[in-house]
UniProtKB/TrEMBL annotation, chains A, B:
Residues 14-86 form the Cyclic nucleotide-binding domain. This is Crp/Fnr family transcriptional regulator. The keyword Transcription applies. GO terms for biological process: regulation of DNA-templated transcription. One of its GO terms (molecular function) is DNA binding.
Amino acid sequence: MQFAKIQGKRWLLRFDRGQRIHVRDTKGTAWRIVSGSVRLDREEPNGEHSFANLAIRGDVIGAETLLFGKYGFTATALTACVLESWPEGHDSPVSDSLLRTLAKAERRAAEVIALRCGQAADRVRRLVMILAHSAVEQPTHAAAELQVTLPSRQDMADITALTLETVSRMVSQLRHAGVLAPLHHGRRLSQSNFAVRQTLGDTP
Amino acid sequence: MQFAKIQGKRWLLRFDRGQRIHVRDTKGTAWRIVSGSVRLDREEPNGEHSFANLAIRGDVIGAETLLFGKYGFTATALTACVLESWPEGHDSPVSDSLLRTLAKAERRAAEVIALRCGQAADRVRRLVMILAHSAVEQPTHAAAELQVTLPSRQDMADITALTLETVSRMVSQLRHAGVLAPLHHGRRLSQSNFAVRQTLGDTP
DNA sequence: CGATTCCTTGAGCAACCTCAAAAGCGGTGG
DNA sequence: CCACCGCTTTTGAGGTTGCTCAAGGAATCG
């Protein structure tokens, strides 16, 4: 279920984990991600739909609607997330904002492409890192503990091009290695949706 | 070596296979790819540089220079290619061209991401398909034979997240399966740089 | 308390990687 | 023309990582 809020002059939409945000070939507007993370899927030639891209805080999704009037991808919330409509009209030159969006999209694409090579453990660790960076407001360059909501194992598998089982094993391994905090049984948190990261600055 | 031609009012640059087009963090302008294919690389945290994206005919590379004044990626020619400067000044609304470029970049990213999952044989086949589509001028929707210059095995390996050896094996396999033409010994073509595709329309 | 869904863990196997050697191609120079 | 060199590609044999299949645990909801 999605709650629409008007705060100041911005439309804010909230989505829960796993919820569909928009569907390919339907009409709608573009959104900027205020918090949380989103997966984009495309339709394969064979009709299946498969992971196409990842979007996190600051990224714009659905920009193609400004050109074609329809979404080019299906978007689903990987974690609870908040979106605001884009572009914000008040911004001065549209081309500047667009250019910034383009540059960001290319960097994100490079990151996601990189997520799909190397050892399984490393891939999952890198994905967690990206999500962790997206969770923190300002880059506090100190080693800080912060809570990150992980996507479902299936979603993580789709992103890293691994299987659900391998991702699960690697998450366990990261926990054992101290990168992720052990499960909080006492506090009744969802079994594995919450994780605590410890060393944010560097990737050894 | 790069030849600059002025044809009409367009600057056309030509690059050979394997040649560096531009280097990350250096100054320069953006380019649209007129023909051929290009790989973009980014610098890893550890200093290595690794495959970040693929660009083919119609794609724009180096758009971020319009914003930051420097290239965000290093670009190298996968095959002989021709570039023209971008944006072409005469185009009416900049934002329209930019939007089109953004949409294209997102579709390309999705394609490259998809190139990195599934069986090795399929990945290589899909890469060849993409390069073949980029080689043909108009989408002739009939089954047509056309010549495609393949990138080096190492480049294909970097793109598909396989090893050089596996790519070589899969290319041999595709030849045996009739997707790629057998080597032309008679015509003195380079051993494996040229390939002929046969069924362009569909991907069974 | 079922029923459902998601996650975890195990065992065996196959696809792909690693290491290694040989062959093809292009260039240079005798 | 042939020999030689450097580079890329091809092909082979064996090892490992991650996949497949399967069963069991944990949380949520009625």
